[in-house]
């Protein structure tokens, strides 16, 4: 008889999660053998939704203590393993089945899963990635600790100092840091209040100090965040802390937000002495060096980040560090150096890493426009950018229009219409090209960012004056005979704000 697989109990704490709970519970179908939900006072349909999924619901008052609430559910769990999630999290469909396999490994005590925190409205807007302990063996000695950012690892190691924690490739998608969700739940105020309580109870707790620094950053209080991270960095045994790399990274980030770029670069450089394979720190060195005009140092650091690639799974990282974000940063550095070949290569490299990425396309259009190469843009895009269908072609044309290059967009669509033999596609592209020639941009994405010849009343005041400034600088640049003067004006134009798709 085949051995019966280990049972997994999903334990959650929730309050007013009717929007998110169905997605979370759908994601654990086939993984969790039982669902135990501690509800801390929902007034919406949360409890009814949980019960429809067969969950055991425990009603409990909120005592401003996440560990206490989690332990209420853990004590009811009957599975050999406990998986814990929040309502705004979902197991990744492609990787979640690995949990069933790991549950059969008797030598393992806990599993670390990869959290992907989505920070924008969609997956292209960026994410942070880091490993977290989210599944552990059910044992009476295994209980959560900590009023906020509660931890289970301390009790596991207290029971068994040689416990094996395994780093998996299983992904959890977390949507709770999206701006709208944070605002709806008032997470920032709640977290700050709980951390202040926790620090009052245990002032020497380095983990609480680090976490309050993170909350200061989220509240745009960079100076206080910097103080918190530096206090954490001075703690005994700092380098052995699992989050030490983040303390160093966020120290640099706090300094960046304060405009102290040289100190920020030095802090990131100090971090690489301890964590030489942490890609994010090298990216930060490149960014900070470029911000102070040290382009050689910036390029060397960017090359190091690209050489390392995405940070190893044990680190907290941001999507694109060592790949598309770093290549994009290289492109910006090459812009400052007026290296046209470098600009094109860097932005194409970013697109190879992430073909759906918009910012490199916007920067390529803007760079060619400011370099006086707008007439070459359509042919360059047609040769270098592969568009699989009409929607992709119109998207690229929309980028050109939004970058102030409507004539290039017309030429590009006409080029593609000639290239493709399928009559329906040729006709549709020709119609779109004619509409653009007549000033009708309604069929394109990014229609709110119109071409350089639009009238004042079709643009916002800020956009109108930005376009007026762009046109003025373009005329002055064209009038200059000296290359250095033209390049100086080009640099100013490249710094003007514009839509880039981040």
UniProtKB/TrEMBL annotation:
Entry superkingdom: Bacteria
SUPFAM superfamilies, A to Z: Nucleotide-diphospho-sugar transferases, TPR-like
Domain Glycosyltransferase 2-like: 9-130
Pfam families for this protein: Glycos_transf_2 (PF00535)
Protein name: Glycosyltransferase 2-like domain-containing protein
């Amino acid at each position: 008889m085949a051995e019966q697989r280990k049972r997994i109990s999903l334990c959650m704490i929730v309050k007013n999660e009717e929007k998110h709970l169905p997605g979370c519970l759908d994601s654990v179908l086939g993984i969790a053998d039982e669902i135990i939900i501690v509800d801390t006072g929902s007034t919406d349909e949360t409890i009814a939704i949980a019960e429809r999924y067969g969950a055991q619901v425990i009603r409990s008052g909120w005592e401003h203590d996440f560990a206490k609430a989690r332990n209420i559910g853990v004590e009811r769990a009957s599975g050999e393993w406990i998986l814990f999630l929040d309502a705004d999290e979902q197991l990744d469909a492609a990787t979640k089945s690995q949990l069933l396999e790991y549950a059969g490994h008797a030598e393992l005590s806990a599993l670390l899963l990869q959290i992907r925190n989505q920070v924008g409205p969609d997956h292209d807007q960026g994410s942070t990635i880091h490993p977290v302990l989210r599944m552990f063996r059910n044992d009476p000695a295994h209980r959560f600790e900590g009023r906020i950012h509660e931890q289970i690892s301390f009790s596991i190691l207290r029971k068994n100092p040689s416990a094996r924690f395994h780093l998996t490739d299983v992904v959890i998608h977390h949507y709770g840091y999206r701006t709208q969700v944070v605002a709806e739940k008032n997470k920032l105020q709640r977290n700050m209040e709980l951390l202040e309580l926790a620090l009052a109870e245990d002032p020497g707790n380095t983990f609480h100090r680090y976490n309050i620094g993170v909350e200061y950053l989220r509240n745009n209080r960079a100076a206080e965040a910097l103080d918190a991270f530096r206090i954490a960095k001075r703690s005994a045994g700092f380098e052995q802390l699992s989050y030490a790399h983040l303390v160093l990274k966020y120290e640099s980030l706090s300094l960046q937000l304060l405009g102290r770029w040289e100190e920020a670069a030095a802090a990131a450089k100090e971090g690489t002495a301890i964590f030489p394979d942490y890609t994010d720190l090298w990216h930060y060195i490149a960014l900070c060096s470029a911000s102070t005009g040290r382009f050689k140092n910036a390029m060397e650091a960017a090359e190091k980040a690209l050489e390392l690639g995405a940070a190893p799974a044990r680190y907290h990282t941001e999507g694109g560090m060592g790949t598309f974000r770093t290549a994009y940063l290289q492109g910006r550095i090459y812009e400052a150096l007026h290296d046209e070949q470098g600009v094109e290569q860097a932005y194409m490299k970013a697109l190879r890493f992430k073909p759906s990425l918009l910012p490199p396309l916007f920067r390529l259009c803007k760079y060619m426009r400011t370099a006086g190469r707008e007439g070459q843009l359509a042919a360059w895009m047609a040769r270098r950018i592969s568009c699989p269908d009409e929607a992709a072609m119109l998207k690229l044309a929309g980028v050109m229009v939004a970058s102030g290059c409507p004539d290039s967009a017309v030429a590009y669509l006409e080029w593609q219409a000639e290239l493709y033999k399928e009559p329906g596609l040729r006709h549709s592209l020709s119609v779109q090209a004619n509409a653009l020639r007549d000033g009708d941009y309604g069929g394109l994405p990014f229609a709110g960012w119109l071409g350089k010849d639009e009238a004042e009343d079709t643009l916002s005041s800020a956009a109108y004056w930005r376009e007026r400034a762009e046109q003025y600088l373009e005329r002055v640049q064209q009038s200059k005979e000296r290359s250095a003067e033209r390049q100086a004006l080009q640099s100013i134009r490249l710094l003007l704000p514009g839509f880039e798709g981040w």
